[in-house]
């Protein structure tokens, strides 16, 4: 195992980033009961490596609420450690080696970040302990309602446009990659979260951007934004977004899948891993979870432990086809 106290310097989303030296965690120690089973006590930290207000932040807050419904002897709290497209938060979390009273929201960007040119992080997704995959997401492309752009095919023909990007090596980057392959030439403007992208769009700071359906829907419904296409495999089953064509319907090849899941630190015990798997299995049975899946137009999918690890390996192989 590589040192958990390693300093990293990452060139991420166009800016020089010092991720700093991790010095161990502040979560709970590993409490092993007499029968050899793990159970946390006190506060369990649920880390989000992205800024407040975006899809990652919302996902972890929903899962925190769902976990807390059944938690006994502990409670979870969410902590944001954004920066560098996830490099800061995930590198901090990597430093919590062997400390099972901590969890982190993870997504496709944790696969892609180590592939980014100029980024040095001391970990890959394989270093963390897989707990649960609880859903999949996609991306749609949105623009201000008064834009001359009406479809992603229009966007693909542009040569001078500012497009927002909250994750060069995540789902946003994959959507932009498909548009560039179709002919788009654009200036990619980096942001820390989808929430920041929405603010920039509404303020006419950018002309288009990828966004999750959940983030875009309120603004499409209000008439502030319009959806140009979706990179999902099928159109959404939704009153507001159901008429949005897929990118492939408009002649643009490619779909985008963003997984949403939870990881634990490296080197926790099997007992701790099994405890958290069971807690998330219970969480995905709650009304809070099912309302989140429905409201955010997500694809319901659950995988745990070894099955989740196998999914990550397959997803990683697919990701490398985009970015290597």
UniProtKB/TrEMBL annotation:
<dbReference type="InterPro" id="IPR042100">
    <property type="entry name" value="Bug_dom1"/>
</dbReference>
<keyword id="KW-0732">Signal</keyword>
<feature type="signal peptide">
    <location>
        <begin position="1"/>
        <end position="24"/>
    </location>
</feature>
<dbReference type="Pfam" id="PF03401">
    <property type="entry name" value="TctC"/>
</dbReference>
<dbReference type="InterPro" id="IPR005064">
    <property type="entry name" value="BUG"/>
</dbReference>
<comment type="similarity">
    <text>Belongs to the UPF0065 (bug) family.</text>
</comment>
<protein>
    <submittedName>
        <fullName>Tripartite tricarboxylate transporter substrate binding protein</fullName>
    </submittedName>
</protein>
